[in-house]
Write a structure and sequence with these properties.
86% of the residues lie in helices and 0% in strands. It is mainly α.
Length: 178
């Protein structure tokens, strides 16, 4: 019965997430078509909000994996971590990454014409962050199947990578060193 309730609440969370994304798309389209000349600051705001959401998840998910690695396979604690990891990944991290990329590429094109060494370096760092996202997605899948073979120490070290990439990205965007 607990399994059925868990599946049902996950389904409801996915429905809420889908509705939220649909509202964002409609809101964005209305903003763009109502005032295309003043859309740029709105796109920047949406991009920044998506980045914050993506980074929050990317900083939290490896920490969950640290704790999950120490939990006994099949335990109540392990099963709870599986639910938390899946919901975080599917409900926050994945949609936030998509919105970040869509608006980020539009801003790079509209605002900078994809020109500038700092912008190329930033896009490279975001590609690395996206690769880290893929690595963590694979880890969540392995944990869900009780196939994790990495110790908690590994996940502690992995936890630092998104932070380092975030620091590099923020410096590149704010300082524009080259």
């Amino acid at each position: 019965m607990a399994k059925m309730n868990n599946t049902n609440s996950t389904g409801q969370a996915m429905i809420r997430m889908t509705i939220g994304i649909a509202v964002l798309v409609v809101f964005t389209a209305l903003l763009y078509f109502a005032a295309p000349d003043s859309f740029y600051p709105w796109a920047r705001a949406i991009h920044i909000l998506a980045v914050i959401s993506w980074m929050a998840g990317m900083l939290y998910l490896p920490r969950l994996l640290v704790y999950h690695a120490d939990a006994e396979k099949g335990s109540v604690q392990s099963e709870t971590f599986k639910v938390m990891e899946r919901r975080l990944l599917r409900g926050i991290i994945n949609p936030a990454m998509i919105v970040t990329w869509v608006f980020g590429l539009w801003l790079a094109w509209k605002g900078f014409g994809f020109q500038g060494g700092w912008l190329h370096a930033k896009i490279g760092a975001v590609l690395l962050l996206s690769a880290m996202h893929g690595y963590l997605s694979g880890a969540v899948r392995k944990f869900a199947e009780d196939r994790n073979e990495k110790p908690a120490r590994h996940w502690r070290m992995v936890n630092e990578i998104p932070t380092l990439l975030m620091i590099a990205i923020v410096i590149l965007v704010v300082v524009k060193p080259f």
